[in-house]
TrEMBL record:
It comes from Lysinibacillus odysseyi 34hs-1 = NBRC 100172. This is NADH dehydrogenase. It comes from the Bacteria. Belongs to the NADH dehydrogenase family. GO terms for biological process: aerobic electron transport chain. Keywords: FAD, Flavoprotein, Oxidoreductase. Coiled coil: none annotated. Residues 3-288 form the FAD/NAD(P)-binding domain.
Length: 356
């Protein structure tokens, strides 16, 4: 029996499962899914879990069931390309014929002293739970500092404001304006929301050091009762350590078929794959769609197309609490209640389509 091993149960490999099961998997092939948790976590909603406005159960989806899908729960510690095997922390060894690596990313601290030791994270569901316990357990009047005003930082700050109106929320933005790479209309809308809801945005910040309950912005010392880091990501360590040609961000370089240039049996998708496009759930799913087509073509013994279709992302959505939001699609910006309903609707559709 040929073994297709999927590392990580995130958006990319969930799409692989959705496309191959129940009827598109060759009869001589089985799938082994390896993940640290027994469910698919909706990473795009971790900010709400950390802020206390969504429950743990609301951001989980069950993995599908199939007689030739075997789920293995554990921590991957090594990929042996020569032996074509994956090693788990508990000593188990899983062999593969084809391997799809979609292990995601972790926080990147940019060499800032103390950042890794003294900040909280929302990169994993476990980290988000810990962040929730910390920020939602703070006494009234406490200060929460959020370092990084990308989409995750913006959504966390707004959701935390809705969850805990008594807290002081400071959002540190390295740029001169929020979402600087997008239309100024969108940037101004988010800025005005924060002003109206008393979230302090500190623009052109440069965090140079973090200490317990204290961070340094340029030469200014700022006290905070909790510090959450949302200022950049990098591939998980196992991928950074993997023997493969990498880009300047430590992500394995892949061909247009999403496999390593020197190994057509190892595919890399999602946040840990080299790409010119921003790392998003949407990108991971589009890459997964193409990997499934490549796998099915190779399994059938047919020739691959000379050129794979280009991935074009549709845009992005963000929330500002449960009532407001923003959407940028096809150079069109929508803000307010309608945008928030659009995001909620997309989340409902996603959970429905993946609910088994």
């Amino acid at each position: 029996m040929n073994k297709l091993v999927l590392l990580g149960g995130g958006y990319g490999n969930m799409r692989v499962l959705l496309r191959l099961l129940p009827n598109n998997l060759p009869s001589d092939t089985e799938i082994i899914l390896i993940d640290r948790t027994p469910f698919h976590s909706l990473k795009t909603e971790f900010y709400a879990l950390a802020a206390g406005t969504s429950t743990d159960k609301e951001i989980r989806v069950a993995f599908p069931e199939h007689e030739r899908l075997h789920k293995v729960f554990g921590e991957v510690i090594r990929i042996d390309r020569e032996e074509k095997a994956v090693y788990l922390e508990d000593g188990r060894v899983i062999e593969y014929n084809d391997l799809v690596i979609a292990l995601g990313c972790e926080d990147k601290y940019h060499g800032v002293p103390g950042a890794e030791e003294y900040t909280y994270s929302i990169q994993t569901i476990a980290n988000s739970r810990s962040t929730f316990e910390k920020v939602c357990g703070l006494p009234p009047g406490s200060t929460v500092a959020i370092v990084g005003a990308g989409l995750s930082g913006i959504e966390l700050a707004s959701e935390l404001r809705e969850s805990r109106a008594d807290l002081k929320v400071k959002l540190f933005d390295r740029s001169h304006r929020i979402l600087r790479d997008f239309p100024e209309k969108l940037s101004n809308y988010v800025k005005s929301w924060f002003e109206k809801h008393n979230v302090e945005v500190i623009a052109q910040s440069n965090i140079t050091r973090v200490e317990p309950n204290r961070l340094y912005n340029h030469d200014q010392v700022i006290e905070a009762d909790a510090i959450v880091w949302t200022a950049g990501v990098q591939p998980v360590k196992i991928v950074r350590d993997m023997e493969a040609e990498k880009d300047k961000f430590g992500r394995p370089i892949i061909t247009q078929y999403f496999n390593l240039p020197d190994d057509e049996h190892i595919y890399v998708i999602g946040d840990c794959a080299s790409s010119d496009l921003p790392p998003t759930a949407q990108l991971a799913e589009e890459q997964a769609e193409r990997v499934v087509k490549v796998l099915k073509t190779r399994w059938s013994g047919m020739a691959l197309p000379e050129k794979m279709p280009e991935i074009k992302l549709k845009g992005f959505m963000g929330s500002l609490g449960k009532k407001q939001g923003f959407v940028h699609l096809a150079d069109t910006t929508v803000t307010g209640r309608i945008a928030r309903l659009m995001k909620s609707g997309l989340l409902w559709m996603y959970k429905r389509q993946n609910d088994n």
